[in-house]
User: Fold this.
Amino acid sequence: MGVAPAALGARKVRHIVRVVLVVTLAIAVLVGVMWLAQRRFIYFPSQVLPDVATVLPGAEEVTFPTDDGLTLAGWLVPAVGDANGATVVVFSGNAGNRGDRVLLASSLAGRGYGVLLVGYRGYGGNPGTPTEDGLLADGRAAVAFLEARLDIDANRLVYFGESLGAAVAIGVAEERPPAALVLRSPFTSLTDVASVHYPFFPVSFLLRDRYPSLERIRGIDVPVLVVAGSADSVVPAAQSQRLFDAVSGPKEFVMIEGADHNDYELTTGDRLVDAMALFLDDVFLPGSG
Assistant:
């Protein structure tokens, strides 16, 4: 005797319901894991640092307190040769630590700029755990430290931020405007760049750290240089261009053709440093370019 069509239909419905429930549960678990562990996919700190006296002779290891009770370390590099009195505050990206920007600091110091390599919380042996609010607090603390030093001209501070560090620089500049802002591979927001790499996840719903740079840059009225790589596979150059377009004050855009996100020419090379030097000469010595 065969199974009645009604019974077969009910069995199929129950099977479909079970499949839907299993898939829904799996998605819920995955979303929960992403929510809880999302900062592990954003911040990639390294704790290994070279000896500063060896890699940056003459540099000073400095510390500065944050407003939430941490004491962070950074490296202050003096200008070499004809100092111009300006200091570049370097906000690095989401991976590594300040030790990865030794060559950049050396190049800028050789052009007459003092340099502060900021050490974020949780990076390079510093205490704490990185978050958006935390890194912005670290940036404010670093700037306050420089402003309090008698050997630093607080009116000649330049914020340099790369990738996620560009978002930190913009966030700090919104509250403590520098003399100029240099942004290397900046994104419009972390939500926007995450959507590029995780198109099937509801990142706009999940993200706690959003870094809304496009929104923040509109309120900043200082000279801005944006440097991007045409082959950037991490932050699309179109996002850097869109951020640049939103700048209301004096601005310049430099595209390094063929450069990917972590290529030497885009992180430390002469094309980056030359662009910065020319731009900053115009900021501090109008008419020199």
